[in-house]
Design the sequence.
């Protein structure tokens, strides 16, 4: 039976970079004989313009029936006056919650050719390849009770609840162990178990889950040390797993080690391995429609989709190699350009990846 991909380009540079990812998909579909059907839909501002809402029930139904969603980016100044409940980002949030996409996979990969773009010394980051697995639907961002109350003495007090159920920890740990098994075989679980009971439970459950993954070497690190180690010696990490808030902070920190937001893909998965794949960056309205956007994060998101939701690791490897080959040739979009490199537009960069794929 053919696999179904729903393609949601969104707003701003979304449609431009999506067009390049679809060129790449066409090539791997033929080269690897993949039986994939692609459908298309609107999301974000584009959906508001046509249908009045950032995600229609029809598009949501197609998303639920698909094996994977390739998402561009949403938002832009045109929709900034929309009421909060109808903003473009709500389309993205609704997809995440309706599909129960609890596992956020954020690779921080620094192609050696771009080591100079990092704020760290090139020798510390060249060849960096970390995967951060962040729990996305629980923890302190969603815990109840929450709010701001006024105490008897008139002082205001803000409060949130950091809560994780065992089952929530178990399912994210499984995703992380599986990912580590497919990569370098090392998993570091990040917590604050010396201070927070909820993360002491986190550590216990991760250790229990490790019994099923003998090939994976498990370690633990307190979050403050993990932040320090990420900027001191980031290449020591293979896969890191952590809760929603720690993951939010650490994944942005790791992303910035790579120096270019235009190169970073991400995935959000549910228990059925259904996933939504998207670049880390936004819709870049400042360069939309100018053929300047870097399409590589979108193309690398497609590679993740093939690997994690469709089980097509060889096709994913080929795409990642083609991206590396393109960089080897000195081709760069404006965001990653350096002295001596050859500046390409969005479409030309997509064509260069296609050419490398066809000749590999
Ligand atoms: P942004 O990521 O869109 O842009 C930040 C800067 O990075 C800009 O200078 C932009 O030109 C540049 N940039 C981003 N992607 C690039 C690429 N592929 N190639 C070259 N340069 C690139 O963040 P922002 O400016 O804070 O937000 C713009 C809009 O995007 C807002 O409406 C915001 O809400 C939305 N947004 C959407 C998502 C998403 O869809 N997941 C994520 C973040 C922001």
Sequence:
């Amino acid at each position: 039976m053919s696999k179904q991909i729903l393609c949601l380009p969104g707003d701003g540079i979304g449609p431009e970079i999506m067009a390049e990812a679809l060129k790449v998909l066409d090539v791997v579909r033929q080269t690897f004989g993949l039986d994939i059907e692609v459908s298309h839909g609107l999301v974000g501002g584009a959906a508001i313009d046509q249908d009045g809402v950032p995600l229609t029930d029809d598009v949501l139904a197609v998303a639920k029936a698909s094996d994977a969603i390739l998402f561009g980016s949403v938002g832009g100044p045109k929709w900034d006056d929309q009421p909060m409940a109808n903003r473009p980002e709500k389309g993205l949030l609704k997809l995440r919650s309706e599909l129960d996409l609890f596992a956020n996979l954020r690779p921080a990969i620094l192609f050696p050719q771009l080591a100079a773009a990092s704020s760290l010394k090139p020798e510390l980051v060249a060849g960096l390849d970390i995967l951060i697995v962040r729990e996305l639907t629980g923890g302190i961002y969603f815990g109840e009770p929450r709010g701001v109350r006024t105490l008897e003495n008139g002082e205001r007090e803000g409060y949130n609840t950091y809560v994780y159920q065992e089952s929530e920890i178990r399912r994210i740990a499984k995703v992380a162990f599986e990912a580590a098994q497919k990569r370098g075989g090392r998993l570091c679980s990040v917590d604050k178990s010396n201070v927070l009971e909820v993360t002491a439970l986190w550590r216990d459950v991760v250790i229990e889950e490790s019994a099923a993954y003998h090939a994976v070497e498990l370690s633990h690190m307190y979050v403050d040390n993990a932040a320090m180690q990420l900027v001191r010696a980031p290449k020591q990490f293979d896969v890191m797993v952590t809760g929603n808030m720690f993951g939010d902070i650490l994944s942005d920190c790791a992303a910035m080690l790579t120096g270019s937001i235009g190169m970073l893909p991400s995935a959000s998965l549910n228990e059925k391995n259904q996933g939504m794949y998207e670049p880390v960056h936004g819709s870049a309205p400042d360069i939309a429609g100018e053929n300047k956007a870097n399409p590589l994060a979108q193309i690398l998101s497609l590679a993740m989709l093939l690997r994690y939701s469709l089980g097509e690791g060889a096709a994913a490897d080929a795409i990642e190699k083609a991206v590396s080959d393109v960089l080897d040739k000195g081709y760069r979009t404006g965001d990653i350009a350096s002295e001596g490199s050859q500046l390409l537009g969005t479409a030309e960069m997509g064509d260069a990846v296609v050419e490398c794929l066809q000749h590999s």
Observations:
- The first helix runs from residue 14 to 31.
- The longest strand covers residues 3-10.
- Residues 13, 73-76, 89, 92, 261-262, 278, 281-287, 293-294, 297, 335 surround nicotinamide-adenine-dinucleotide (CB under 6 Å).
- The chain has a mean pLDDT of 95.
